[in-house]
Amino acid sequence: MLGNKERPAQPTRYKASKEELLDYYKQMLLIRRFEERAGQLYGLGLIGGFCHLYIGQEAVAVGLQSAMEVGKDSVITGYRDHGHMLAYGIDPKVIMAELTGREAGISKGKGGSMHMFSVEHGFYGGHGIVGAQVALGTGLAFKHQYSEDGGVCLSYFGDGAANQGQVYESFNMAELWNLPVIYAIENNHYAMGTSVERSASEPDFYKRGESFQIPGIQVDGMDVLEVRGAAEVALDWVRSGKGPIILELKTYRYRGHSMSDPAKYRTREEVDSYRKQQDPIDRANAELQEMGVSEEELKEIDKEIKAIMVEAAKFAEDNPEPEPSELYTDVLVESY
Ligand SMILES: Cc1ncc(C[n+]2csc(CCOP(=O)(O)OP(=O)(O)O)c2C)c(N)n1
Ligand SMILES: [Mg+2]
């Protein structure tokens, strides 16, 4: 238990202006339409290897990253990474080109869906090893502290990853060294086909830092303004030198674990109950209409975003594959 340690303030739902909410709405819709397009390109055989879609979880990346400073802070995540890159303002064209293994891709077409990087944006991947980003993110936080650059690392991981040993070694060091890191646990209720009920002895993931004195907050990850409100509290805590904090974002993925998963381990009713009653984009859409944004304006935004996706897909398809000589670049053959 946290004992006498100070606790973070209870977050409140972020009071966004119409312009801010409109911006979050556009970003969430951009992620949704990007992922739908990626799903189509996968179906056409244009994307090789694994492809994990973020559909349903958009409010998490947008709510958290809209509160961060690109270039100063850092972000690291697992293989379900397209949404986090888009939420950090990275061009959909170079992400789509990466998915399709093209020369103009953000990792020169050599990383694919799971291994994308942009040091320029402070985006450190894209990691296929479940839980690896927790230890690496803790290292990024150490870098922020050591170089006194004022940055914070946001390290995302899933409910499945939260059962990994290296997560707890990282928690221990982060609290001991007071590192500026937000551990964002995206609890989408499943790790591949295994539900939280079947795998987690403590299913309230926000409590997982208690034996390390790390406070945690549980958040409705299907509501972008709830997420943004929690981001404010977490950033305030970490930036003021109080060390790490855990956010558990309760969310849901609508599609299978990856494109090759028929998702037979859950019922259609369960998926529909999230899709129809809690969808983060529908919720923001309804709220914007209450704020006076017309349905026509919202439809127009969707049209514009769909056009961006058509352009991104065309850019990717028209771009060549990398030269075979690229196989010999970006390979570590000597010590640093
Ligand atoms: C160390 C390791 N063990 C197992 C796997 C296989 N694997 C890939 S994704 C995954 C499930 C992870 O689920 P979760 O952390 O909940 O993330 P989500 O896919 O739901 O975003 C597993 C077991 C892996 N990639 N790495
Ligand atoms: Mg999961």
What would you note in describing this structure?
- The chain has 336 residues and is α/β, with parallel strands linked by helices.
- It has a single domain (18-315), classed as Thiamin diphosphate (ThDP)-binding fold, Pyr/PP domains (Rossmann fold), CATH 3.40.50.
- It is 42% helix and 9% strand.
- The protein is built from eleven helices and seven strands.
- The protein has helices spanning 18-43, 58-65, 82-87, 92-99, 132-146, 165-176, 196-199, 224-239, 268-277, 280-290, 295-318; strands at 74-76, 153-158, 181-187, 190-191, 194-195, 216-220, 245-250.
- The strands form two sheets. The protein has a five-stranded parallel sheet, with helices on both faces. It has a two-stranded antiparallel sheet with strand order 4-5.
- The model has no long low-confidence stretch (mean pLDDT 96).
- The site of thiamine diphosphate has 15 residues, from strand 2 and strand 4.
Care to count the β-strands?
7
Mean pLDDT: 96
Number of folding domains? 1
Please give the order of strands in the largest beta sheet: 1-2-3-7-6
User: What is the count of DSSP helices, taking H or I runs of 4+ residues?
Assistant: 11
Percent in helix: 40-55%
CATH superfamily: Thiamin diphosphate (ThDP)-binding fold, Pyr/PP domains
> Kindly, what is the distance between the CA atoms of the first and last residues, rounded to a whole number of angstroms?
42 Å
Cα Rg: 19 Å
What is the CATH fold-level name? Rossmann fold
InterPro entries: DH_E1, PDH_E1_Alpha_Subunit, Pyrv_DH_E1_asu_subgrp-y
Cofactor: thiamine diphosphate
Organism: Sphingomicrobium clamense
Keywords: Oxidoreductase, Pyruvate, Thiamine pyrophosphate
